[in-house]
Each structure stands twice: as structure tokens, then as C-alpha cells.
């Protein structure tokens, strides 16, 4: 026999662990085994039901995300349809004067602006503002004449656009050089 091992006499009762707090004698090992197997079977069933439920939740979530992506621009598209209709009608009308055509374009532009507002699309026109590399793209730099502060936008070549707080397209600008 080696150090740390003890010998159990053959006639003594077997010992089972009791939650790590000590040992207790087991009178009927077959009954204890049957109870443990029944508990294991119950736990296995609970595990399988929980696993199936998690799979169902994952699948439903994926379907909801797919539907959200598919129809995310639905309301924005609904806002643009009248703009398209107005432009199409303007092209079909050959008898309009230039002032009537201009009025029609102005009405169509208002419709488009309203659609952009509903879609949280906003215009970036930074004329006179301090240059912001996150919202503006400097195309050129010019020497300042003192009327505009250095690193400020002196001309906007193309307006930028943002969706909510995210830049869709930076504004193309000319910036006053720092001396």
C-alpha cells in the first residue's frame, strides 16, 4: 500500500460523496444508481429542450433581421415615388413654358426634401465653418485674405450628405490655408 491510500475492509458499507462536504454510507448502491440515472435523464431532457428553444430563438431572430434588411428602405422608397411621378410628368409635358417648368421643378425639389427629412437624410453645406475632416473633403487650399479664418471652408464645390449622424458623402470644399 502506498502513502495516502487506505484499505477498506471487504464487509464494510460503500461510501459516496455528499456534495464535497464529506462522505455518507450508501445502503443500496443499485437504488442510488437508479436515482442518479433518473436525475441524469431528466437533466438531459431539460438540456435538449433548452437547446431547441435557443435554436428557435436564433432562427426567429435571423428571420426578423432578414425582413428588416429587406424592407428597411420601404418608407423612404414610398417617399420617393411622388418625386419620380412629378419628374415623369414634367418630361411628358411638352407645352410648358420655362417658368411653368421651373415652378414644377421647385415643387418636385420640395417633395424630395420632404422625403429626405423623413428618411433622416440631411444636407451638409459647410460654407464658413471650420474644416472637419470627418464631414468635409478638402479639394484645394487657398491663401487667406483675412476675411475668413485659417482652416475654414471658403467654397463648397459639392454639398455633402448625412444619414442621421453618419456621413453618406463628405462635402467637397476649398479651405483657407494656415500661414
Describe this structure in words.
The structure is a single chain. This protein has 179 residues and is an alpha+beta fold. Among the domains are: 26-70; 122-179, Nucleotide Exchange Factor Grpe, Chain A, domain 2, CATH 2.30.22. It is 46% helix and 21% strand. It is built from three helices and eight strands, in the order ββαααββββββ. Strands 3-6-7 form a three-stranded antiparallel β-sheet. Strands 4-8-5 form a three-stranded mixed β-sheet, with no helix packed on it. A two-stranded antiparallel sheet has the order 1-2. A hairpin with a 2-residue loop joins β6 and β7. The radius of gyration is 38 Å and the shape is elongated. The model is unreliable at 8-20 (pLDDT under 50).
Summarize the SSE layout with pairings.
Layout: E1 15-17, E2 23-25, H1 29-70, H2 74-92, H3 98-118, E3 121-124, E4 136-142, E5 153-158, E6 160-163, E7 166-169, E8 171-176
Parallel strand pairs: 4-8
Antiparallel strand pairs: 1-2, 3-6, 5-8, 6-7
Helix pairs in contact: 2-3
What kind of sheet is the major sheet? 3 strands, antiparallel
- How far apart lie the N and C ends? 91 Å
One letter per element, helices H and strands E, the order comes to EEHHHEEEEEE
- How many alpha or pi helices? 3
Quick description:
It is built from three helices and eight strands, in the order ββαααββββββ. With 179 residues, it is an alpha+beta fold. Among the domains are: 26-70; 122-179, Head domain of nucleotide exchange factor GrpE (Nucleotide Exchange Factor Grpe, Chain A, domain 2, Roll).
Amino acid at each position: 500500500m502506498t502513502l495516502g491510500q487506505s484499505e477498506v475492509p471487504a464487509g464494510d458499507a460503500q461510501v459516496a460523496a455528499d456534495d464535497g462536504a464529506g462522505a455518507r454510507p450508501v445502503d443500496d448502491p443499485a437504488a442510488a444508481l437508479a436515482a442518479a440515472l433518473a436525475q441524469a435523464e431528466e437533466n438531459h431532457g431539460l438540456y435538449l429542450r433548452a437547446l431547441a428553444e435557443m435554436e428557435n430563438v436564433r432562427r426567429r431572430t435571423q428571420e426578423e433581421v432578414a425582413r428588416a434588411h429587406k424592407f428597411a428602405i420601404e418608407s423612404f422608397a414610398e417617399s420617393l415615388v411622388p418625386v419620380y411621378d412629378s419628374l415623369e410628368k414634367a418630361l411628358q409635358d411638352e407645352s410648358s413654358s420655362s417658368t411653368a417648368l421651373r415652378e414644377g421643378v421647385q415643387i418636385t425639389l420640395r417633395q424630395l426634401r420632404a422625403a429626405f427629412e423623413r428618411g433622416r437624410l440631411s444636407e451638409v453645406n459647410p460654407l464658413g465653418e471650420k474644416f472637419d475632416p470627418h464631414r468635409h473633403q478638402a479639394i484645394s487650399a487657398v491663401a487667406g485674405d483675412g476675411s475668413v479664418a485659417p482652416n475654414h471652408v471658403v467654397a463648397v464645390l459639392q454639398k455633402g450628405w448625412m444619414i442621421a449622424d453618419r456621413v453618406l458623402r463628405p462635402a467637397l470644399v476649398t479651405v483657407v490655408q494656415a500661414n
